[in-house]
Specification:
CATH architecture: 2-Layer Sandwich
Number of domains: 1
Organism: Salicibibacter kimchii
Pfam family, one: DUF1054
Number of strands: 7
Shape: globular
Structural class: alpha+beta
Strand content: 15-25%
Order of helices and strands: HHEEEEHHEEHEH
InterPro entries: UPF0637, UPF0637_domain_sf
CATH superfamily: Protein of unknown function DUF1054
Protein name: UPF0637 protein DT065_05430
Strand order of the largest sheet: 1-2-3-4-7-5-6
Distance between the termini: 36 Å
Helix content: 25-40%
Family: Belongs to the UPF0637 family.
Radius of gyration: 16 Å
Number of helices: 6
């Protein structure tokens, strides 16, 4: 399997000025790599979850002026879309690659999903210490589990449950200069290892969508 790698060239795209020039660079340089990475990921995730999983690549179609600060692929059990469902994400900001199990604000039944995670907070706390939590998929400021205060994870889950725009993403971030990004096999293995760690939470929440 010829798996893609990510170099500084891809990360530098997010410094390209202007919406259309940046989108053109994303379409030409990043999206083909996302497809080459995402198709085998969807196959592996189908096996892991026991459901047919489908690849989606962010189009940023709603943007009219501001260029995207990040871009991503998503894998979800629904072939029509992913934002209203728990889903797996891999994407890039200008300084890191992210690997998430993502619950974003468009989810229906967000309260029920959040409660399932709150009921399993002790299991979330047992994930590797370097795993990170993000409360906003549009921002870079994720926190590692290791760096969180005692009740911070609990507060994050409560916020996800109670705040309309609240989100919860769990996984890990890999710095732009990490050698694993230069080795397609190791990167794929790292992504799948992350998804295997968070899959039990996906399994407990994916049935709560509409």
């Amino acid at each position: 399997m010829d798996l893609p790698t990510f170099t500084q060239k891809e990360f530098n795209i997010f410094h390209t000025e202007g919406l259309e020039p940046r989108m053109e660079a994303i379409r030409e340089n990043i999206q083909p790599k996302f497809r080459a990475l995402g198709e085998p990921l969807a196959e592996e995730l189908s096996d892991l979850t026991g459901n047919d999983m489908f690849l989606h690549i962010a189009k940023h179609a709603r943007r009219k002026t501001n260029p995207p600060a990040d871009t991503w692929l998503a894998v979800a059990h629904n072939h029509r879309g992913y934002k209203k469902h728990p889903h797996f994400q891999v994407g890039l900001f200008d300084d890191h690659l992210f690997i998430w199990l993502a619950y974003i604000y468009e989810l229906p039944n967000k309260k029920e999903i959040a409660q399932q995670l709150l009921d399993r907070q002790d299991q979330l706390e047992k994930l590797p210490n370097h795993y990170a939590v993000s409360l906003d998929h549009t921002k870079k400021n994720a926190r590692t589990l290791e760096s969180m205060e005692t009740d911070e994870l609990h507060k994050s889950l409560v916020r996800f449950r109670d705040v309309k725009k609240g989100e919860f993403l769990i996984g890990q971030q890999i710095a732009h200069d990490d050698p694993v990004l230069k080795d397609g096999d190791k990167l794929f293995s790292t992504i799948m290892d992350t998804f295997k760690h968070v899959q039990p939470f996906y399994e407990k929440t994916t049935h709560l969508h509409i």
